[in-house]
Amino acid sequence: MAMIIGLTGGIASGKSTVSEIIKNLDITVIDADIEARLAVGKGEEAYQKIINHFGQSILLNDGTINRAKLGEIIFNNEQERNVLNGIVHPAVRSRMAAKQEEAINKGESLIVKDIPLLFESKLTNTVDRILLVYVDEEIQLQRLMNRNQYTREEALARIQSQMPLKEKKELADAVIDNNGSIEQTERQLFNILKEWGLKKEV
Ligand SMILES: CC(C)(COP(=O)(O)OP(=O)(O)OC[C@H]1O[C@@H](n2cnc3c(N)ncnc32)[C@H](O)[C@@H]1O)[C@@H](O)C(=O)NCCC(=O)NCCS
Ligand SMILES: Nc1ncnc2c1ncn2[C@@H]1O[C@H](COP(=O)(O)OP(=O)(O)OP(=O)(O)O)[C@@H](O)[C@H]1O
């Protein structure tokens, strides 16, 4: 039986930073953000549904979805966010399930699923353990503004569209505190994986 770890956190809390370290251990990471991008590619079912609801003006000149524009809409309007989630999430779930099946068939004993909205989308029953990447809100805000060149307002809209990290912290099986250096984060990750029975020397 493979162990499925759900890696979660908030926007810009450090999930990708942690998942890169995990990938370097030759462990398969299935990334919900990547699957969500693929699910809205030209010609996909979700792509058409997005145009039907949000209109042609949501497209760039090359016909692909204008993600910045869609983001502006959905991070400032809960109703529109729910519509988009209803279109994209079913496709993401089936894509992730297919990848998980593939990894299990290859005999992999540990699989990590990076799912930012694990709690919000009630997907906790699709994983065996929940690993949360935590940062204080002010650091989260600063890192998000720096990484995406967002204004404080744009960054706050995104943070506030998710369950507060403090609440998620109470619901996780293990927490990595990513307020410090990457080295400190790496050490915490290795300790948790060892505790959870990872055989590899880390
Ligand atoms: C709104 C979109 C077009 C913005 O794209 P953009 O390239 O700017 O951001 P990206 O996709 O890289 O997401 C960055 C982060 O935003 C957060 N986020 C994305 N969508 C949502 C959402 N619906 N609700 C809350 N937070 C979200 C996540 O923490 C994610 O890691 C895109 O995020 C999207 O299609 N979202 C809906 C699908 C979704 O829920 N994806 C998240 C995981 S399945
Ligand atoms: N310990 C750290 N020290 C300094 N910077 C960090 C640390 N961890 C992550 N960062 C930086 O903070 C930003 C957010 O990290 P990362 O992209 O890993 O977050 P994420 O949770 O995957 O975000 P998203 O939900 O948007 O996909 C990045 O620019 C990253 O380089």
UniProtKB/TrEMBL annotation:
Primary subcellular site in the record, as a coarse category: cytoplasm
Q: Which principal EC class is assigned to this enzyme?
A: transferase
Question: Mind telling me which residue stretches traverse the membrane in this protein?
Answer: none
The record's annotation in InterPro entries points to: Depp_CoAkinase, P-loop_NTPase
GO CC annotations? Answer: cytoplasm
The pathway noted for it is: Cofactor biosynthesis; coenzyme A biosynthesis; CoA from (R)-pantothenate: step 5/5
- PROSITE patterns tied to this protein: DPCK
One Pfam match: CoaE
Residues that, per the record, bind ATP: 12-17
Cell location: Cytoplasm
- Quote the EC number: 2.7.1.24
The UniProt keyword set, sorted, is: ATP-binding, Coenzyme A biosynthesis, Cytoplasm, Kinase, Nucleotide-binding, Transferase
Q: Which GO terms describe its biological process?
A: coenzyme A biosynthetic process
* Catalysed transformations (reactions): 3'-dephospho-CoA + ATP = ADP + CoA + H(+)
UniProt GO molecular function: ATP binding; dephospho-CoA kinase activity
Q: What does this protein do?
A: Catalyzes the phosphorylation of the 3'-hydroxyl group of dephosphocoenzyme A to form coenzyme A.
HAMAP family according to UniProt: Dephospho_CoA_kinase (MF_00376)
The family line of this record is: Belongs to the CoaE family.
What is this protein called in UniProt? Dephospho-CoA kinase
Species, as recorded: Niallia endozanthoxylica
Gene this protein is translated from:
coaE
